[in-house]
Amino acid sequence: MSSMPRVVIVGAGASGLACAISLKKVHGHDNFTIYEKGSDVGGTWRDNIYPGCSSDVPMSFYSLSSDLHDWPQSHGSNEDIQAYWVGLTRKYGLYRHIEFNKTVVLAEWNSEKQLYTLTVENLATGEQSVTTAAIVVSAIGVLGFPRYAGIPGRETFKGELFHSGRWDTSIDLAGKKVGVIGNGASATQFIPCITEDPNVNVVNFCRTPNWLLPPARKTYSNLRRAILRNIPFAYRLVRWAVFLRFEFMYLAVFGNAFLRKIVTKLLTSYIRYTAPPGLHDKLIPSFPVGCKRVIFDTHYLKALHRPNLKVNWDGVERITEDGIITKTGDRIPLDVLIFATGYAADEYPLPVVGNRKMSIQESFRADGGGKAYLGTTVPGFPNFFMITGPNVVTGHTSVIYTTEVQINYIMQLIAPILGREIESLEVTQNATDAYDDKIQARLSNSVFMHCHSWYRVGGQGKVTNNFPAAATVFWLWLRKPNWNHYKVVGGESNLSMKYVAK
Questions:
Q1: Helices 234-250 and 471-478 sit at what angle, rounded to 10 degrees?
Q2: Which residue ranges of the chain lie beneath pLDDT 70?
Q3: Contact 243, 397 (CB under 8 A)
Q4: Do the Cβ atoms of 283 and 275 come closer than 8 Å?
Q5: What pLDDT, on the 0 to 100 scale, is given for residue 151?
Q6: What's 207's DSSP letter?
Q7: CA–CA separation, 18 vs 353, rounded Å?
Q8: Which of 34, 145, 334, 341 could be cross-linked to 9 through a Cys-Cys bond (beta carbons 3.0 to 4.6 Å apart)?
């Protein structure tokens, strides 16, 4: 075993793999293990296999900056994206570092040994083992744990029932009456696909409408792909163009009330032009654009013209053994029930106990929701780093971009630990409080405060998921650590001379 400090990464999705790649490329570090609860890499792209599943972000910007790719489409399918991450895992020799079907059930900091003691459970056998690590990186993402709407009677349903994030491919929907609860990003992708078969009758149960952007997906021609492959820097230029377009989107949707009004009028016109006239009043939101996740229409509005697709806005009172009873008392018989109700994004799932003998969940609850310095480090949790932690999701740009920005920041923080110049590093409470105050002050005047959404604790509390500025600002803030915002154990003078003095 290497004498270099051991790193544990939790999760082998895009962020966990990107972190492992950086460990190898930046530090030449090989003493790390990735614990993954699934049976392969890919995270959300391994798990989400529903019909029509694809990225909302153009693939030129939804891939690592170090590993640009010849994508066949502007917005990749889940199969293409999964193949990309499997390919990178093989390219960088990561499979030998990954332990599949294992989950970390507890990570507890030992101040005396300056290590984390981790309890790891084998999900196949139920057996638990104990290991240690000098550094723990959380790469579990925010869309890993499906949330079922709290509707009474779910357990009584006698038909087939599943969540869109755990699509059951063994079920043939032909000739079935299918109920879909939810009309967010997943539902608007798979409903047009399953209703292409006129023998599948779908009732889409909706609570609130969503703002939909016109379709942006397209298949690339062989000529375009050949040009990008053979002209130096072409891939990079396309990537920059997408980045700049999304930065303008931030300005138009999140950063300027006047421009947001213009966008609102344009999207209202699009919905009125595309959707059936009788549904206009229901489909056009009353809340401002950007308050909830803005969805790229994948021909959902056109699908609403199909006779085998009905939309129900009456609300679901309860689920029965043979269907749904709405809040107006109507009984709707169903053979299959699909929950497209999103993910648990307001409760951090990884059990970690720091040097204050408090779990990270207890720490977050005490603060009214997730709170982390630059969305990456938390007071009381030395050598613990979060990718896509609190207030990192931008709402307008690529999560792969923000992930790379965070990983670059983390690589700088862990350099003195890996080099054994210090034993541990912990962000100060004052720096975290000041940062959170700044973030929450911006959020209090933002569009995110105007509706119920998964961006907020409990749907309407503190905004814990969103970063309230442009992606460029996120990069600027995380470009270089402010070492004065950290306290260390062991080698304080080394840190001061080598890093703080710069």
A1: 110
A2: 1-2, 144, 345-346, 492-502
A3: yes
A4: yes
A5: 94
A6: S
A7: 25
A8: 34
Strands (E), 211-291: 212-213
Domains and CATH numbers, the chain: 7-145+344-500 (3.50.50.60), 154-339 (3.50.50.60)
Concatenate the DSSP letters of all residues of 408-475 into one string. Answer: HHHHHHHHHHHTTS-SEEEE-HHHHHHHHHHHHHHHHTSGGGGS--TTBGGGTS-B-SB--S-HHHHH
How crowded is residue 87: how many other Cβ atoms within 10 Å of its Cβ?
Answer: 12
How many angstroms separate the most distant Cα atoms in the chain?
73
End-to-end CA distance of the chain: 34
39: burial class by Cβ within 10 Å (0-12, 13-18, 19+)?
A: exposed
C-alpha pair distances (Å), 20 with each of 53, 98, 175, 442: 26, 10, 46, 33
410/427 Cα distance (integer angstroms)? 12
Enclosing H/E stretch for 190? helix 185-194
Q: Which residues of 222-253 are buried (b: 16+ CB within 10 A; e: fewer)?
A: eeeeeebeeeeeebeebbeebbeebbebbebb
Tokens of 236: 């990079």
Name 454's Cβ contacts closer than 8 Å, sequence gap at least 6. 293, 342, 343, 345, 346, 465
Strands 323-326 and 316-320: antiparallel
Residue with tokens 């396309």: 238
- Dihedrals phi, psi of 332, to nearest 5 degrees: -120, 110
Residue found under tokens 């480090």: 377
pLDDT for 1: 40
Contact 342, 454 (CB under 8 A): yes
pLDDT at 343: 81
Residue 388: its pLDDT value, please? 93
Distance CA(60)–CA(47), nearest Å, equals 22
Q: Give residue 489's pLDDT.
A: 92
